Amino acid sequence: MAVPHLTTALTGPLLELEQRILGAMPDIEGWFRAQWQEHTPPFYGSVDLRNAGYKLAPIDMNLFPAGFNNLNPVFRPLAIQAAQVTVDHLCPGIANLLIIPENHTRNLYYLQNVAALRDTLRLAGLKVRVGSLLSEITAPTDIDLPDGNTLTLEPLVRRGRRLGLADFDPCMVLLNNDLSAGVPAPLQDIDQTILPPPQAGWHSRRKSQHFALYDRVASDFARLIGVDPWLINPYWGVCRGIDFQARAGEECLAETVREVLEQTRAKYRELGIEQTPFVMVKADAGTYGMGVMSVKDPSEVVGLNRKQRNKMAVVKEGMSVSDVLVQEGVPTFETLNDAVAEPVVYMLDRFVVGGFYRVHTERGEDENLNAPGMHFAPLAFENCCTEPDATDPPDAPPNRFYAYGVISRLALLAASLEIEALILPAEEPEPV
Amino acid sequence: MAVPHLTTALTGPLLELEQRILGAMPDIEGWFRAQWQEHTPPFYGSVDLRNAGYKLAPIDMNLFPAGFNNLNPVFRPLAIQAAQVTVDHLCPGIANLLIIPENHTRNLYYLQNVAALRDTLRLAGLKVRVGSLLSEITAPTDIDLPDGNTLTLEPLVRRGRRLGLADFDPCMVLLNNDLSAGVPAPLQDIDQTILPPPQAGWHSRRKSQHFALYDRVASDFARLIGVDPWLINPYWGVCRGIDFQARAGEECLAETVREVLEQTRAKYRELGIEQTPFVMVKADAGTYGMGVMSVKDPSEVVGLNRKQRNKMAVVKEGMSVSDVLVQEGVPTFETLNDAVAEPVVYMLDRFVVGGFYRVHTERGEDENLNAPGMHFAPLAFENCCTEPDATDPPDAPPNRFYAYGVISRLALLAASLEIEALILPAEEPEPV
Q: Suppose B358 and one of A240, A307, B370, B376 were both cysteines; which one would form an S-S bond, judging by CB atoms 3.0 to 4.6 Å apart?
């Protein structure tokens, strides 16, 4: 199977990072074990990574991951086993689980993801059915999928404080819907466990909170293995109360862009990286890569034209953008046949269960690879992510994939701190 | 990859069993989940199965399994993940683990197993070293293995009530030594957790106790899925106080053989199975297939000649045999290129992590395939054992392997009841 190549000569710091990760492996795993004694991992998650050669960092963490259909089928037993561990304590004994997906009925690629997730959970030994929030689903509706699988969407039935289907009372509800527009009525005041908790939907989740907690996780971890935390952590800043249409908040945005660019430029100078700094300007809440701009100079965010403002002002489900994250751009230097390749790592509970590359031929190394309408070719990881081999070079595929799994689990840990804070907003999350 | 074929027309009852297992999958997994809430699985185990076409049953359960080197490397991530789950609660945080293997220094195939086990536990994130009980190991000794791996045996060092190596203090000791000759002094009165517990060594373990507990597990499980428990459970009896050399106890042996043959014959008549019943006569304590006879008539165990008596009287490490298990023979009807193939399933904690066939060209379907000096060719399972597909026939390989995993986990559950009884001999094990 093909593995993308790093197409940059600037691999010195990364090789050192990968070498440190490889050498500290038992300490790293022991550190994670101790963290998971204190913090509950999310039910699942996916992490978008960027590998710049001189830096390996998460740029996004999804708590409602799609794309399970893109994982290498060889590793499905790993996902099944991880799901068994997860449901052991959530649903002991014979149990029903209800998946609530996004309200897409025509995005068959997304529905293949739901079917893949359903099948994995079934093979973990649960009775799994899929309930739709769509009012148009009034009876069980079979949808034939391009991969030959079938997904049946069924109407939700609420009985008092329990959610289920007409003849199905689940022990838990698994959300594969990021609740961008808020918590729908059927999901409010439910007695069953809902995971991830509805409070972690994009209606209340903020990337800036995630990356604030990631800062803490990354600096603890960097201390553990003795590296500069910047090697695994992009700089960032946030501007709140922006109104793109009214051109309100442009000064904050320009100032934050200037700061993040300046920090990045200073670090590039320190490490001798000959690269032009850029930042990604993103909605602080939201997904699907809507409301994202790549910016190299503060002037670019001042006096946006109508098209640019429209693009930035609205994300999924028509939610308007008022808070904006300005994140150091980490270029992607992994390519496959000249196409840019961005790794995405999937986790169930605390376990890495696979990953794939988004391979895209038409975009550059400093652009957003998860844009609406973007047609990436998924390339499943050939092995993942628990079999590093210290006798191989630090960038041999099993070692590179191990490093990907480690960095992704750091983002997962930050997400678990984030969920703690979202569920108990009055309390400080425990220190890592 | 090749999969052995069932070479018997008598597959009606088995197909029904496999169909029931397939159909009851969520109930089966829920039942296991509930069992593992009540009972702690052994650290690891392997189960020898026989597939007669009309019957699928465990004939042996090993708590100190060798053969990890024979598993399909594609599934090593599954073993790594299972090991992570296991050590999570045994050794939280950064941790050392000490393996104590059998006292073989020349059996390189066995030592490849130890190295495979060590590597899996290392990849699970532990610092793992191997300590030898052999007095001749007075300094770290590297042994080069046929597969290119290296195993370092190190001298045990005891400090008070802690066991370790000169510069290595483990959080737990993993036994890969079945302690046939008793618990060696260095392992007595140790504060660290030793798993499996030394009380579960063959010096005190009895197959008859295992199969008595398996009777209970198998009948509960058979009720769950609505089948005759005999389909998954061989008849058996036990004779104690036998002295082969003094010809004492032959009457008990002949009578027990007669009873087990008669029970088997009656069941064959009931189900229309045209097969000649036979029994396996085995030492009640012991391994390596020493002290095993295949018998078709009670007269065969009366008046044994010197050679036969010598064969039966002594098992591993020169231990004399006084207790004898008489077990219904379950013929092996799986063959690969005319060679008899016996499945062996491996588990870590409560998870099936792989398996292989012992493929042997020189022995018949009713003989013991695990005899000393026997050279079997291991054939790793091509997939294992968590991906049944109800749209395939019940004997399609993924479904057959799922059934193997289920039956093996029943034996694993019996072993966990057995360990409870061995550790707390005064208390009755809890009902399943």
A: B376
Answer yes or no: do A34 and B386 touch at CB < 8 A: no
- pLDDT score at A245: 81
Query: Which residue is it, tokens 């093979």?
Result: A123
User: Which residue from A355, A357, A328 is spatially nearest to A412, judged by alpha carbons?
Assistant: A355
- Provide the ipTM: 0.89
Residues A201, A188: Cα–Cα separation, whole Å? 13
Residue carrying the six token digits 């308007």:
A320
Q: Does B362 touch chain A if contact means CB atoms closer than 8 Å? A: no
Residues in chain B with CB shorter than 8 Å from the CB of A92 are 33-34, 37
Return d(Cα B280, Cα B292) in angstroms, integer: 7
Which chain B positions have a beta carbon within 8 Å of A82's beta carbon? 81
Please tell me which residue, A274 or A425, carries the higher pLDDT value.
A274
**What are the E-state strand segments in A181-329?**
193-195, 236-239, 279-283, 292-295, 324-328
* A68 Rama sector, left if φ>0, alpha if ψ -120 to 50, beta otherwise: alpha
3 state SS of B378? strand
Please answer yes or no on whether A26 and B94 come within 8 Å at the CB atom: yes
Q: For A164-178, B51-65, B343-357, B387-401, which range has the lowest pLDDT when averaged over its residues?
A: B387-401
Contacts of A151 (CB under 8 A, 6+ apart): A111, A114, A115, A118, A130, A142, A143, A145
Taking the C-alpha atoms of residue B217 and residue B213, their distance in angstroms, rounded to an integer, is 6
Q: Please report, as a single letter, which amino acid is at residue B16.
A: E
State whether B29 and A126 contact (CB < 8 Å): yes
Cβ contacts of A300 within 8 Å, gap of 6 or more: A257, A293
Kindly give, in sequence order, each residue whose CB lies less than 8 Å from that of residue A269, ignoring residues fewer than 6 positions away.
none
Q: Look at the alpha carbons of B202, B205, B211, B215 in this order and tell me if their dihedral is positive or negative.
A: negative
For residue B325, which amino acid is it? L
* pLDDT tens readout for residues B404-423: 999 999 999 999 999 999 99
H helices then E strands: how many in chain A?
A: 8, 19
Three-state secondary structure along A42-99? CCEEEEEEEECCCCEEEEEEECCCCCHHHCCHHHHHHHHHHHHHHHHHHCCCCCEEEE
User: Does residue A336 contact residue A5 with C-beta atoms inside 8 Å?
Assistant: yes
The minimal CB distance from B80 to the residues A37, A123, A386 is found for A386
Contacts B81 to A, Cβ<8 Å: 78, 81-82, 351, 386
B82 contacts on A by Cβ (under 8 Å): 81
Chain A contact present for B248, CB below 8 A: no
Asked if B160 reaches chain A (Cβ–Cβ under 8 Å), the answer is no
What integer pLDDT is reported at residue B372 of this predicted model? Answer: 47
Of B125, B386, B387, the CB nearest to A25: B125
Interface touch B30/A80, C-beta < 8 Å: no
Bridge partners for B6 per DSSP = B334
Residue of A nearest to B127 (CA): A26
Compute φ and ψ for B49, nearest 5 degrees.
-110, 155
Check CB contact of A121 with chain B, cutoff 8 Å.
no
Closest C-alpha to A396, from A19, A58, A9: A19
pTM over 0.80: yes
CB distance from A347 to chain B under 8 Å? no
Residue of chain A whose Cα is closest to the Cα of B126: A26
Provide the CA B356 distance to its chain's centre, in angstroms: 13
List CB contacts (< 8 A) between B31 and chain A: 93-94
User: pLDDT, tens digit, for every residue of B16-74?
Assistant: 888 899 999 999 999 999 999 999 999 999 999 999 988 999 999 999 999 999 998 88
Average pLDDT, stretch A305-315?
Answer: 79
What is the SS3 assignment for A360? strand
